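[job 0417] fold request received: Peptidase M20 dimerisation domain-containing protein
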Amino acid sequence: MSLEKLVSEARKSDEVVKLARELLRINSESETAQIQNFVKDFLKSVGAKVETHSVNGKTFAVTSVTGENKKHALILYAHSDVVPSGDTKRWSYPPYDATVVGDKIYARGASDMKGALASELFVYSLLVQNDVTLSKPVSFVCVPDEENWVKTPTGWGVSKWLLETGRVIGKCCIMGEPSGLSKICIGERGDYWIKLMCESTPRHGSAPLYEENACVKLFRALEKVHSAIKSVKANTPAEIKEIVEQFYELISEDLKIPVSQLGAILEQPSMNVGVVKGGDMINIVPAHCEAQVAFCVPLGMSWMELHELVSRVASQNDVKIDVIENAQSNPSYTSPKAQVVSHLKKAVEQTLSLTPKLYVTQATSDANVFRAYGIDTCFYGPGEMSVIHAYDEWISVEALKKSVEIYLRAVLNYAL
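[job 0417] inference complete; emitting structure tokens
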């Protein structure tokens, strides 16, 4: 089959929609063995050589590669786990029925990122089934734990374990994380997660010293930490400074938040107080209060720099700090001039007749992990950021089909 005919067949096929719905019907919130076995069996059914990499006897990654010399491979990456669906009564359709209404498939994980998983699986199967001759290898990697990392022999996260042990190597990587078809993400912030703790002397609640209350002290310290991080601004790398500055409008569109409320989200640290615990009874002054706080680290700053700032403020306010194990990463980006970016841009232009915008996201993903091992990585997927982790998550059928053609063209642009 000629390459153009292969692309044409991919464009017309409804198989990717069928595959996506099969993946979406598998609940992979906390148990991923079933969906990982589905991926493994699908690859074997099309004649691919498959390897499984078990972390703890039940959690495992699935990999496959065409060709030799994997260090030059283009990696197609996906994760199969999803966040919890929450209160199912708040869904218009059951979250694991993969209901199709018009152009949309409704299901947990539709945009993040089982739609892209289906597209990448389908593209990889086309290469294998049609015995396409490539000058460079192509790898497929499906990990079970991007949403909620699991413990491995090398720390937290299966991707890190695969890379650190040499089970996955490559030159560049396309991740199917949700970006929408008109944008390519080339960078992201880092993570810095901590626990802040405060102590006080317990006493009867009828005669409290308001300031000598562990909860009050901690809340006030949190405000001071927030003020401190908002007083600093990172030195954005010159190579992507213009990209960062131009894309507040894009982030506003993705998050459905007015630009005026975003502040300098890509250039300053941000802070989320996710969990607070303190006190035993309403009529006792609490002896202890703690908060789990997640910070995002902007490009141009390291998590250790942020840690030094937060630690200084905490110590000045009688608050102790614990860094949560293996929940830190530095921000990273791939050069806008990197080969993988150029090949993916060309594929989008060939398919959609538009030039995709490059951007840096406010979130984090396994892309930081891959870049830490010298692999140029960007993410591009048919999912929409505005609906991920939300009730009634969906993916466009048309976008799903288009992504197949774009992934296939990107692979051929790189590997022919």
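[job 0417] notes: The first helix runs from residue 3 to 12. DSSP finds 13 helices and 18 strands in the chain.
[job 0417] exit 0
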